Amino acid sequence: MLKNYNLEPVKQALATAKQTLILLAQNPDHDSAAAGLALYLSLSKQQLNVSVGCATPMTVGFNRLFGVDKIKPRIGNQNLVISFNYPEDSLEKVSYDKDPANQKFNITIEPKAGLQVLDVNSVEYSYTGSNADVIFVIGARGLEDLGDLFKSEQKLLEDKSKILINLSSLDKNSQFGTVNLYDPTASGCSEIMFAVLTGLQLPVDADMATNLLVGIELKTANFTSTQTSADTFEIVSQLMRLGAKKGHLPTPAPPRPFMVNPAAPAWPRPTTPTSIPFSTPISAAPAAPSDWLKPKVITSSSQPE
Q1: I want to staple 202 with a disulfide (CB 3.0 to 4.6 A). Which of 12, 42, 176, 211 is the partner?
Q2: Under-50 pLDDT residues of the chain
Q3: CB 126 within 8 A of CB 81
Q4: CB atoms within 10 A of CB 171
Q5: Distance (Å, rounded) from C-alpha 288 to C-alpha 150?
Q6: What SS3 class is residue 22?
Q7: Positive/negative CA dihedral, 228, 207, 13, 7
Q8: Residue 169 burial by Cβ neighbours in a 10 Å radius (0-12, 13-18, 19+)
Q9: What is the pLDDT of residues 20-64, one digit of tens each?
């Protein structure tokens, strides 16, 4: 039987949410990334407006997780961000003015005297700022674990009118959520996420199930860690019935134990033939038997010679 988490506030919030946001802690492991993507795919299948973000880019090791291309380093589109490369202390001032007649907003960047002007080709534009109603934070001990996303979205994350869901199995969790789906007895976030998706009656197809199984396999070192429990195996069996692919992402082999100056194997030493000391004259060497060069006939010990 799956664990019962307090999901009623989450269910009520999702029922009225205009936008849902899923955030992963910076430098996530496969477990938290798999859990976040399973949630993203499930909510998307329900036609909900949802996005998923992480401050650090996904490396090639995550490329087999379904939906990994949906994880973005910036989230939201409320604020326009203008970025450009310019040496520190090279600006004299930055000012703006409004032109109501033409409905324009002008920004003026003035360099210090004698320094190079800003190259327009180096200017980049992007968006930040989300207006999400429901926010899931996955695999974090505290909001600071979100890295740059916490810095850029601090106002949103600390808005008490939002539903903030903390989903984690990590120790020393600060219980920062409006709803804390914190379970240190679970093998990881993927195990918790399956119980959450099932409890919220959200769809779980083969791709989502595979993601979650990958997360569990890697978090438990292929079911060898001490956090592997009967609940873990029960969830794995349900995921496989839903079409999860076992071994979809290879599990690294556990490291071999390090041995300091291991002892050499005690191989049997060969019998040393009788040697002749260098000081012994050749004439003093033992004489060979008279039949040394004659052919020999090998007989069985059970037969007469």
Answers
A1: 42
A2: 304-305
A3: yes
A4: 8
A5: 92
A6: strand
A7: negative
A8: buried
A9: 999 999 999 999 999 999 999 999 999 999 999 999 999 999 999
Residue 194 neighbours by CB under 8 Å, 6+ apart:
2, 38, 204, 212, 235, 238, 239
pLDDT at 2: 82
Burial 174-198 (b: 16+ CB within 10 A, else e): eebbbbbbbbeebbbbbbbbbbbbe
Structure token pair of residue 169 = 């199995």
Q: What is the CA radius of gyration of the chain?
A: 34
Q: Give pLDDT, residue 43.
A: 98
- The correct answer on CATH 1.10.150.130 for the domain covering 8-79+127-241 is no
Instruction: Say what the pLDDT of residue 58 is.
Output: 94
- 25, 145 contact by CB (below 8 A): yes
Of 155, 166, 209, the residue nearest 9 (C-alpha): 166
Question: In DSSP terms, which residues pair with 20 in a beta bridge?
Answer: 50, 134
The domain spans of the chain are 8-79+127-241, 85-122
